[in-house]
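Exercise 7.
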Amino acid sequence: MGIVKQIGEHSIIGNSQGIRDVFGIVEKAAASDSTVMIFGESGTGKELIARALHQNSKRENKPFIAVNCGAIPHELLESELFGYEKGAFTGASHTRIGRLELANEGTVFLDEIGDMPAALQVKLLRVLAEQEIDRLGGSKPVKVNVRFITATHRNIEDAIKEGKFREDLYYRL
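Solution. The predicted structure, written as tokens, is:
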């Protein structure tokens, strides 16, 4: 019989030393408000672990917003994350709140962060440092209080060497 760990509406089941170690890491990381980066192949439960971190944290009653950086076309990812003001571009007929702002006081899970374009990595680094965002077409920064949990299947250290991922962002995450 495996150990069952209930996480919100989901359960993680396992009895190996490895899964018991994961349970311990989740409990420790959930108790802090630090950013977390999860590494693992597709289908290994990275989002389930991210949800466990959120649901066992002081932010559990606040939003959990998941964004797959590899599934959203690069040209749309910025407006999805940061939102935009009316008139920011052709077709922007109204102001749209981005996912980072929607997650205020909660958690943002950025899956496949290794696929994030370099220009957005710079903007994300600013969010981590300043705790504020700029909507596309906006003139005033918007304060956000968000915990970041990120995940990737890529070797980020190799991506840094290849110039595909910012080293300063990696160390912030």
